[in-house]
Queue: 4 jobs
Job 1
Amino acid sequence: MSEKTVRIGAIGISHRGSGMLRLMMRFKGVICPAVCDIYEDRRDDGIEIVKNSEHYSGYQVNGYLDYKEMLEKEELDAVLVCTTWISHARIATDAMKAGLHVGVEVGGAASEEECWQMVRASEENGKFCMLLENCCYGQAEMAIFNMVKKGVFGEIIHLAGGYEHDLRDEIAYGREIRHGRLYNFMRRNGDLYPTHQLGPIAKLIGINRGNRFLSLVSMSSKSRGLNEFLKKEKGEEYDITNFNFNQGDITTTMIKCANGETISLIHDCTLPRPYSRNARVQGTKGLWMEDGNQIYIEGRSPRHEWESFDPYMEEFAHPLWKIHKKNAAKYGHGGMDFLIMAAFVDSAKNNYKPPIDVYDTAAWMAVTYLSEQSVAMGSMPVPVPDFTNGMWIDREPTRRGIFCLDEVCEEYFTDEEILTKI
Ligand SMILES: NC(=O)c1ccc[n+]([C@@H]2O[C@H](COP(=O)([O-])OP(=O)(O)OC[C@H]3O[C@@H](n4cnc5c(N)ncnc54)[C@H](O)[C@@H]3O)[C@@H](O)[C@H]2O)c1
């Protein structure tokens, strides 16, 4: 595998984009001949990152301020898109139309149409669009996936999760740090960032493969967190201290699935709190709760008592984590960033169907605009489009392999060094 090369351009070189570009350049055979950001300094940073990477072999690296010009002029196999939320789908669609595979950072969609555009561009051009949802490869999430597949929780009934991250400084100082979140919190109101929780949940219950999201309802609280924060940090005189932010401090969304499961999501980024994804997976035999690191399995746990999840994580470790664990600490977000990037590079290099495809990308991202619609209509239920156009009922088999997120493919883990050969 390692003698193959793949030419991947990078679009969006801010905090996340530069980290992901650095990570991508650690893989042998990855050539990045072009980088792009609308800011000159970030574009130039991108060029430097490539040129300073371990496997850089002296090739020309071109910088662009306009991604369309880059797509037109460069000969690429794929692009890595780490731009702001409202540009993801547009850039992904244009890149697939230009004949490139896409790895796109997480965020929600602003409209139904942009989800369909991604789906159509992928189908019509035979190119994949992989949402780089790193949380699908989290150590705990993968152990839970393994347990669900082994039936430890029985039949799954209810799932929950939250993006509960105090981002007040990143949002409030959006103009000063040239960050994309601020205007979204000013103007939108809904679950703006659903996929960290929803990605792993969707894979657990076979969304788009025998199951699908049917409808959702969403409700947002009032908005006070950013005003309080700005008052304390900047005083009353600061121009947006008393701005009437549309985005409620807490948005709660409930999704109903075709196979009867319910999913509850919380978006919580503007109040003081420690980070949590607040996951819960509950079935007919027991449940796991991320907060508190606790689990209860009927017949195994002492009656009516929580147990620590730690021994379960060890016992039910996903085979990917058995080999990745020793190196995980070297990479971002506890090692899951490495796995999502490895899965993207592996798919792009080998023209494989990716573990997260355009139907997953569209369905997960859609929750944002659907949640905005529901909030705007006083929490009315809204139907979730079926982006597979009926294929979910009887999909073709998944592509098995070490990065597969639909099955645990034990038979592929024969080689301890497999991750060094991507
Ligand atoms: N998976 C994770 O754990 C994780 C963590 C952090 C951020 N993210 C996601 O990564 C993305 C980037 O995050 P960030 O914090 O770096 O955001 P950011 O707003 O700081 O950076 C976005 C960059 O994209 C550039 N950009 C915007 N539109 C562009 C266009 N049309 N062409 C070229 N460049 C364009 C901006 O100039 C900016 O440099 C976001 O979607 C964010 O949600 C994911």
Note: The first strand starts at residue 6 and ends at 11.
Job 2
Amino acid sequence: MTKLNTTNKEQSYDVIIVGGGMVGATLACALGNSSLKIAVIEAYQSNFDWQEGSHDIRVSAITHASQHIFENLGVWDGMQHDGVAAYDKMHVWDATGQGQIHFDSTEVGQADLGHIIENRVIQKAVQTRLADFDNIDLLMPLQLQSMQLNGQNVELTATDGLRLNAQLIVGADGANSWVRKQSGISLSSWSYHQNAVVCNVTTSDSHQNACWQQFMPEGPLAFLPLADGQSSIVWSTTEEKAQWLLNMDEHDFSQELQVTFGSSLGRIQLSSERGSFPLRLRHANHYVQERLALIGDAAHTVHPLAGQGVNLGLLDAVVLAEELLNAGENKRSVGAMSVLRRYERRRKGDNIAMLAAMDGFKRLFSNDFTPLKVLRNSGLNIADTLSPLKNLMIKRAMGLFGSGLSEKLPRLAQPDLSHKQN
Ligand SMILES: Cc1cc2nc3c(=O)[nH]c(=O)nc-3n(C[C@H](O)[C@H](O)[C@H](O)COP(=O)(O)OP(=O)(O)OC[C@H]3O[C@@H](n4cnc5c(N)ncnc54)[C@H](O)[C@@H]3O)c2cc1C
């Protein structure tokens, strides 16, 4: 998929995006057909030649805002073709008490609350779209070796000897971002002391196109509906228990899941391999530096309990794209601090608000202190009966508006197809 003739050992760009994952490739699509010359550097070769019936056990709950971004960038149809699952209900309850809350898309006049999509489906759609843009080179696989920032530009060398330079480098290279480490930007971070065990299961009763989430002191357990009727499991639990769950044979794992979740979906059976992801909150103390910007997981990671991580990253991508395109139109350098600070100002408050909310939720439900248990259970039940509060919660989770700390949603995240690129 590499479009570049690498016999030329030196290449110049306006913007180099390191990381061709969901967020990095989306930023590139948002800069497609512009006057900016873009390189996307991805360390690993993608393989979209899937076996019939296979699954990616990593999935994402995608908000309406993210769906609009994908629609406006012309990649939503490709995702629909490969399989997206709309969900229109969400059931949330506290396993240690009587507290519960239920959300239904009809309460806010929408057909659905969002979609569950395999990560490989998203990545395939956005990476494939890059080939449509003459101003974008996708360099894959390419391993970077060094990065030098100076007042004028950024210079990179790759392990194969290729040298690249640009006005701006964007780190979209995930939670352990190489770009962030090279930049020296510091990170606020702590472990949740939980791992998320992920896998797929079949259930004898239908998932009813609903997300089911049960909160337990050691972490939440979610069943997310998939297009083929199976469910994706995200089971956040202590590091020790996660290891125990991974070591069990398939039958014992299914049994343990059944006992923990109960019979709401009938008989549960493991139908895939299992994976495990350590959970950490991370927040880069700065998103930008002269000639450098961080987006997506390179800038922040959040507990997956409300499925917001990639949704925040996609908003970073389209806000940064807006600012870079504005700079281009106004003949300003895309690497200038004045341009990059605008991106940071527009995204930081929103991201911090979401990180803090998810962190608070995680702590609230991890706590076994009886008065707090009573409070959270009655809080859930009260919220369930208060329509305005509930509507606000649903709309925020659907990404229908920003956190309230920042402005309205960026243009590409709005349902206005006039921005669609061809
Ligand atoms: C269990 C779990 C469940 C989740 N569920 C949800 C959910 O339901 N909804 C949601 O919104 N979010 C969810 N998330 C979060 C979501 O997965 C992340 O926020 C998202 O993957 C971040 O995308 P990204 O493109 O920023 O980073 P990544 O997905 O990590 O992609 C980074 C890319 O950069 C490449 N790369 C890395 N280093 C280099 C380098 N040095 N050079 C070149 N390329 C490099 C990688 O190969 C990769 O392709 C979940 C996370 C976990 C752990």
Note: Residues 18-24, 41-44, 60-61, 144, 172-174, 178, 196, 198, 234, 277, 296-297, 304, 307-311, 313 surround flavin-adenine dinucleotide (CB under 6 Å).
Job 3
Amino acid sequence: MSQPGTRPRLHCYGCGRAGRVIVRWLHERAGLAVGQICNRSLTSARRAVEFIGAGEPVEELQPDISGDWLLLGLPDGELSGAAVGLSSRMPGQAELAFHLSGSTPAAVLGSLGVPVASVHPARAFADPAAALVAMPGTWCVGEGQAQPLAALKSVVEQAGGRWLEMQSSGKAAYHAATVAASNYLVTLNELARNLAAASGLPGQQSAELLDSLQRAVLDGLLDATPARALTGPIERGDAAAMARLLAAADEHGQGPLFRALGLATLELARTARGEREADQALADVFTSRSD
Ligand SMILES: NC(=O)c1ccc[n+]([C@@H]2O[C@H](COP(=O)([O-])OP(=O)(O)OC[C@H]3O[C@@H](n4cnc5c(N)ncnc54)[C@H](OP(=O)(O)O)[C@@H]3O)[C@@H](O)[C@H]2O)c1
């Protein structure tokens, strides 16, 4: 067991895009020592160690990790099998084990026979170097057993992260929320860029225009409910304008998503301002056939 006041050593099994950022962040900002780094290939483990700037690349995790922490930074589908495989080689040795999945419960690591938790950093790790710079202030959502959660909360907060805890039963809905907020925002941006391109605006400038619009809306949403933040032709009940916009979206192959979002936005407008006479005309516009 790590003694009070001493920093535990962190090993990482599956040190890809997310794992290497978390290990380096906790090493640099919370003073955790870095132990073994194990990936499918030794070459990949070496690359992770190079990024972290500490640790020992290994072909197989060596069993002597008593009192240390073990991060399983594997893809979600690999977690259960990896825990079973590791348990036969190192039963009950680590002080705690945790994974980084937003939707898989910590209990998937149960066969390790040690206290388990999961910590989902609400951040995209596609570019590890950029993600590392952005880590301070990142929300980290913990779930699992009380003792490892308390220990992980302490180091995450020391590293400058923001901590939140949830029950395992809510994980799928939580992860759906983060997918909607981040992945679907990208899809929306793509829809907007396609329509801007169809308008004849130059690509770079229109990308910047749409970016500044989306950022301002997101800023406004911090202090208002989505229903209250809504503006534009749907909120005003302008069915004629929406019919023109939808015709343009149909002409340029963007109709289905534009319609679906229009109907959802109409529902949102109704909750904010109540029913208006034009709402049926708006609903008819969005449910009309494109041909
Ligand atoms: N990426 C994100 O933006 C993000 C954000 C939040 C949370 N997460 C979570 O982080 C976890 C990892 O995701 P990721 O995007 O970092 O995945 P990733 O980049 O694909 O990295 C996975 C790592 O696991 C290693 N690995 C796979 N199977 C293995 C095995 N059987 N034995 C040993 N090592 C193995 C891979 O080794 P090789 O390099 O040798 O192939 C790779 O280094 C997931 O639970 C995910 O939900 C990811």
Note: The two ends are 69 Å apart (CA to CA).
Job 4
Amino acid sequence: MLSFRQLTIIFIIIIIGLNFVSLITSCFHCGWFGCQFYVWNILVFAAYSGISFALAFLPCSNFHHSVLCKGQTTEKVLSLTFDDGPDPKNSPLVLETLRKHHITATFFCIGKNLEGNEELIRQIVAEGHLIGNHGFSHSIRFDFFSSGRIRSELLKTNEIIKNITGKTPNFFRPPFGVVNPMVSRALKGMSWQTVCWNIRSLDTVMKNPKKISDRIFTRLKPGSIILLHDHSDFSSRYLDNLLSEITLSGYKVVPLDQLLNKPS
Ligand SMILES: [Zn+2]
């Protein structure tokens, strides 16, 4: 798969080539190509922009940045991740279920949700779960922020987590799973590991718990990373069933750092 950098180089080469050919042809006569070369420039630019834009929504393509979406294994293991917490109402219920099944999960927390939930965060860590960075604001405009603003959001969230837990997260999950050039630039020079998923449960969109479970099981593969949300109804009410079904299917839930073989 091409990277953004490689596509940009190809784009520049094509544009230079197009304009060179157009210049040569225009020297001899005003043929269709020579007179219409600007149309080709626009078309090539539109294709370049379209590809770059579309692949920002497919972070596992590794187009804009290196992203891990599953573990490299043939064993029947998977990891659970919970985004957008902590949630004072539902996160404790999720923790209770995880405790019952002796399972370690990863909570990608939103910085602004941490204030007032310090005890909950300490409990999550004390029970052996991992905390990841999911940005500070989770604003719908996040992907239009400058790289400097994104970087300061991420550093601020890590600082808050460190102040509460004494640990600095190394795993980052981009809000909405979008990785564009600004997000990539914000992460430049950081040793953080960007982690997405290969199974989106849609637990905040779909209402039918059976459909959510079916969706997860039809996509299940060794090394899967499942995206759930600790504030969702599904996680607080049907996680117990899901974990029992996972065990029955022969899969084992392992911590994300173990699955990816990366420090958390
Ligand atoms: Zn999120």
Note: The mean pLDDT is 93.
